[in-house]
Design brief:
heterodimer; A: three-stranded antiparallel sheet; 13 helices; 3 strands; B: alpha+beta; Beta-lactamase; 2 domains; five-stranded mixed sheet; five-stranded antiparallel sheet; disordered N terminus
Chain lengths: 325, 614
């Protein structure tokens, strides 16, 4: 019950932020992009230098007044920054602009990866990548980069932290360490599988209610839903997400300018990646990377980030006619 | 920089890429849904089972073991409540440290440690492993005060078996101990594995083993819901245990005690039967052991000490020990002579003190130098004349002897209600061929006539055969328990189950000749006359002195011979002579003469028997 109240407070705060973001003039949003990006980068650097250690990672920055996780803020700051950048140089864009954009993208990603926080860095990376992609990045260059990354992947293995390596290995064979690294995956697949088609009913999931499933409220909440509401409930969640994404892409399609279109597209698709990575890891298709399920997982930062993103979409939607004239 | 490009906001390229992204997303969704379909629809039952296994911990409830009573309602084996230390979580990974700390409070030997470690590897999740059994009051107090330091170790009240008379009933009752790996494998083969838990008790040896299924009762089961830490939340279902049934023995504790005392410090056996129905009245094998050692558990060195002791306290000499019967076999050879009409009671011969096979110089000597003079069958029994039986055996030939010995139950199990017993040997040509791949020599038959040679019998077989001679009609099957309910209460159901033996089908006239002769064994001039002197009841018997060690013609000198090479003293007998109710057999290992050593022991038992029932 405490969690319900706490999450309620998180949501009220996040909804207020969403409303503010939706209401401010569109101009302000694009004008804020650069300062916001610089500000967030400073915070990330500070985190790397003086951040709090927790569970072996340095993700939090204590600013006396509030404790914040700058990497979360970057999920918003980066797409806005890049969208603003391409919007600004729309008419003169050339190859070197893409290179600059790529650098703007990689700097925060590397800082976050070093914390280490693989999940967030993936999400930040994709949010920036989507802007580049929809800003017209050459498909040939993209194909070249993808091929190159596949080729260097074996070498990249050594760069990963040992615990990250373990997670990936565990994904391939969870039974290798049932009480250790594989425990999360095994228990979450048991929870989801035992839910069957109709589910066990609300609050009836034995895996989650008896604590066999770890992190049932946060990263593994999808397993609880799968256990208690079954395949049918899971389908419903999928449809809800797809509807949200569909709407986001519609807003992007009808966006008033390049900035809003790129930002909207990126926010919407990142939203999908969010859900996909989370569900994928809970059902044992992807390594466990600590990505919450948007709008459902317990936790303040995630709620704030996602709802600010939605606030931005609402803003674009509300302002679409103002510029069209 | 100056190159003009088509505005990026031009919708064509963007829409194209959005479509690509949508298709890509849908493909990813298909992956997720495919996996979910696999988990939740195709394999759902498997995962439901695993979720149930996670959640439900089936913990057994041990039943109370049945008690064991003697025929007068005296409790021989009961249960008492004490405490065991139990390790309740085998996923413990700092076992060594925990046991080290525990060692300050409760002694845990290195061997117990090894056993615990082994058990932990074998046992399933949440299986309980016994660390120490039957703690002393001090240990309980110390653990209670320090228990908070060991959250995963619990004191658990348990029922332990107590044998109220210890060594006195050790071979009779056997003992219970914790099941071993070997036991569990054996139970598995018999399909009984499911009725036992890992730290269960099982009856070993004696009555405890034979009546295991009856005494044990049935496990109860607690289906408990547990959370991920193994904490029990609530009982989902409970099947109550069914207590074991009590077992009522035919043993008379007072007689058992008398027999035990009468044997003194000798190694040997005494078994007394109801002469008419085979109920076992006393069943003593010496030396015995302390059965509580097995209940409480002991370390390897104690075990080795018991197992390897020279006087072999773990051997149940009554039914597992085999001995040459010596002269106690003579009455049965004599019966064969009469039945086969090879002898009449009146027929007599001159005994020069030895017997030689026709055409041979070798002398089979009588125990009495110079011989017994003119000997008929009666005298041959009373004075235990070897020469008479050498010749009789020769005249009967081995196959006939084998037939009669078999009729008296020699060479096969008596069928007593014990987990195992020896068959002994009633030799025959076929047996020798099988055993040694050698033909039977006429000389072999001669020593069989006086119970030496290849003959081997258990004291129980001797007692059963003696009872047959006493009652004249039936080869009884000895039984330790034949009451469905308390024999000492006066309920109708207390009547014993019938115990039909095998009809003997021998001429009562011939039997009577032997009975008379065996009575006279106990009278003046007989080999056991001294043992019977002064008794106010009549008794019959036959002594035996069985050679353990072949002296190869040298003189037998008791004093110069090592104890273990001395003769076994034997005695079989029954009483009262005219209307027998009790038959018994005594073997005193390396005791010396049957008449001087074994018969007086029998006398004490007879006295105790008749004192108790005037």
């Amino acid at each position: 019950m405490n969690k319900v109240i706490a999450q309620g407070k998180n949501f009220i705060f996040a909804l207020i932020l969403m409303w503010i973001v939706a209401k401010i003039p569109l101009d302000y949003l694009s004008r804020f992009a650069l300062p916001l990006y610089i500000f967030t980068m400073v915070l990330l650097v500070l985190t790397a230098l003086i951040g709090d250690q927790a569970k072996g990672a340095q993700r939090w920055l204590d600013l006396q007044v509030v404790r914040i996780q700058p990497s979360e803020l970057m999920k918003i700051a980066l797409p806005l920054m890049l969208a603003w950048y391409f919007d600004r140089y729309e008419r003169v864009i050339g190859a070197k602009y893409y290179v600059v954009a790529a650098l703007l993208l990689l700097a925060p990603v590397i800082l976050i990866l070093k914390q280490p926080d693989l999940g967030t860095s993936i999400l930040v990376f994709t949010s920036g990548f989507f802007v580049l992609f929809f800003a017209g990045m050459s498909l040939r260059v993209l194909a070249f980069i993808v091929t190159l990354s596949v080729l260097v992947m074996p070498f990249a293995w050594g760069v990963l932290e040992p615990y990250q390596q373990t997670r990936i290995l565990t994904l391939l064979n969870p039974a290798s360490d049932p009480l250790g690294a594989g425990y999360h995956t095994i228990q979450s697949t048991i929870a989801i599988g035992s839910g069957g088609f109709w589910g066990k009913g609300w609050m009836e999931g034995t895996q989650s209610q008896l604590n066999f499933l770890p992190e049932g409220a946060t990263d593994f909440v999808f397993a609880v839903l799968g256990e208690e509401f079954g395949f049918i409930g899971v389908l419903f969640i999928f449809l809800a997400y797809l509807a949200l994404i569909w709407r986001g892409l519609q807003i992007a399609q009808r966006a008033p300018n390049l900035f809003s279109r790129l930002a909207a597209t990126s926010i919407t698709l990142t939203f999908f990646i969010y859900a996909f990575v989370n569900v994928g890891m809970v059902i044992g298709l992807l390594p466990i990377v600590g990505v919450p399920l948007p709008l459902i997982s317990f936790g303040g930062s995630s709620a704030v980030t996602v709802l600010i993103g939605i606030g931005i979409l609402m803003n674009f939607r509300a302002n679409r006619r103002l510029v069209q004239t | 920089m100056s190159r003009y490009r088509k505005p990026l906001s031009e919708l064509g390229g963007f829409t194209f890429r959005i479509r690509g992204a949508i298709i890509f997303m849908l493909i990813l969704c298909v992956f997720l849904l495919g996996r979910l379909f696999f988990l939740q629809i195709i394999n759902s039952e498997y995962y439901q089972l695993r979720a149930e296994n996670n959640r439900i911990n089936v913990s057994p409830i041990l039943p109370n073991r049945g008690l064991i009573y003697d025929r007068n309602g005296r409790v021989l084996a009961k249960n008492y409540s004490s405490y065991a230390l139990e390790l309740q979580d085998n996923s413990i990974d700092d076992l060594d440290q925990v046991l080290d700390e525990l060692g300050d409070i409760v002694e845990v030997s290195a061997e117990e440690r090894a056993r615990i470690e082994k058990a932990m590897k074998k046992a399933g999740r949440f299986a309980n492993i016994i660390i120490r059994d039957d703690l002393s009051q001090d240990e309980i107090a110390r653990f209670t005060a320090n228990g908070f330091r060991f959250p995963r170790i619990k004191l658990r009240a348990q029922l332990y078996r107590e044998y109220l008379y210890g060594e006195l009933t050790s071979h009779l009752l056997g003992y219970v101990r914790r099941v071993s790996e070997v036991d569990l494998d054996r139970l598995e083969k018999r399909g009984l594995r499911a009725s036992y838990i890992n730290s269960d008790w099982i009856g070993k040896r004696g009555v405890e083993a034979f009546y295991e299924s009856k005494l044990r009762g049935r496990l109860g089961l607690n289906h408990v819901e547990v959370d991920s830490s193994g904490t029990e939340l609530r009982v989902l279902d409970r099947q109550h245990p069914v207590g074991g049934e009590d077992v009522f023995l035919t043993i008379d504790l007072a007689l058992q005690k008398a027999a035990f005392d009468a044997l003194g410090n000798e190694s040997g056996a005494l078994v007394a039967l109801d002469a008419n129905d085979g109920s076992v009245l006393a069943f003593v094998s010496k030396p015995g052991y302390d059965p509580s050692l097995f209940v409480r558990g002991f370390d390897q060195s104690t075990w080795r000490q018991i197992r390897d002791a020279e006087d072999r306290p773990l051997v149940n000499r009554v039914s597992d020990g085999v001995y040459p019967p010596g002269s106690t076999l003579k009455p049965f050879i004599a019966i064969a002579g009469l039945e086969e009409k090879v002898r009449t009671p009146e027929w007599s011969m001159w005994d020069p003190g030895f017997f030689s096979l026709p055409g041979s110089q070798y002398k089979f000597r009588d125990w009495k130098k110079g011989g017994h003079g003119e000997v008929n069958l009666h005298k041959a029994i009373v004075e235990s004349v070897d020469t008479y039986f050498y010749k009789l055996a020769h005249d009967l030939e081995i196959e006939t002897i084998h037939r009669y010995l078999t009729r008296f139950g020699f060479g096969s199990k008596t069928g007593i209600d014990l987990p195992r017993e020896a068959s002994g040997i009633a030799p025959s040509k076929a047996w020798k061929k099988r055993r040694f791949e050698q033909p039977w020599y006429p000389g072999d038959t001669i020593s069989v006539g006086i119970g030496q040679g290849y003959n081997l019998v258990t004291p129980l077989q001797l007692a059963v055969a003696t009872a047959a001679l006493a009652n004249g009609q039936t080869l009884v099957r000895p039984v330790l328990s034949r009451f469905g309910a308390r024999p000492f209460s006066d309920r109708a159901s207390a009547s014993p189950q019938p115990n039909p033996g095998q009809p003997l089908m021998l001429s009562s006239k011939h039997i009577h000749v032997l009975q008379k002769a065996m009575e006279d064994v106990m009278r003046s001039g007989g080999t056991a006359a001294g043992a019977a002197r002064g008794a106010d009841y009549s008794m019959a018997g036959k002594t035996g002195t069985a050679q353990v060690f072949s002296l190869k013609g040298a003189e037998y000198d008791e004093d110069s011979l090592e104890k273990r090479l001395q003769d076994h003293a034997l005695f079989v007998g029954y009483a009262p002579a005219n209307q027998p109710t009790i038959a018994l057999a005594v073997v005193v290992e390396n005791g010396g003469g049957g008449g001087s050593v074994a018969a007086p022991i029998a006398r004490k038992v007879f006295d105790a028997y008749f004192d108790a029932r005037p």
